[in-house]
Amino acid sequence: MGRGIALQFLTPLVGMKLVAIANRTLPTRREPPPGRIDSVTTVGTVAQLESSIDSGRFAITENAILLCEAGNIDVVIEATGEIELAPSGDEGDRNGSMSS
């Protein structure tokens, strides 16, 4: 489901763009998703994520909370389909992200 949403946002969409994806485990091979992404930057801090977005680079991380803490991300979509795998407490529903 998450892949389908990401592919939708890689097509022309006025006002929103896919800027980052969080996944519990990152692939060992960091290939950009198909579409309009030239390169992928792996990030581990909010500062790295925000810098990547500001530079126009696509970011991936294993820490979904970073997406919620980044000041330049407006929308976060949880698309795992596995709610029991979401973080507990007030950190739930945080995976995948888009920014306007």
SSE blueprint and pairings:
Elements: H1 2-9, E1 17-22, E2 40-42, H2 46-54, E3 58-61, H3 64-69, E4 75-76, E5 97-99
- Averaged pLDDT: 75
Q: Give the domain tally.
A: 1
Our estimate of the beta-strand percent is 15-25%
Could you give the count of β-strands? Answer: 5
Shape: globular
Q: Which regions have little confidence, pLDDT < 50, spanning 5+ residues?
A: 91-95
Largest sheet: 5 strands, mixed
Description:
This protein has 100 residues and is of the alpha/beta class. It has one domain. Helix content is 23%, strand content 18%. A five-stranded mixed beta sheet has the order 2-3-1-5-4. Helix 2 links the parallel strand 2 (40-42) and strand 3 (58-61). Residues 91-95 have low confidence and may be disordered.
Concise account of the structure shown:
This protein is of the alpha/beta class. Helices cover 23% and strands 18% of the residues. The chain starts with a helix and ends with a strand.
Protein traits:
100 residues; alpha/beta; five-stranded mixed beta sheet; 5 strands
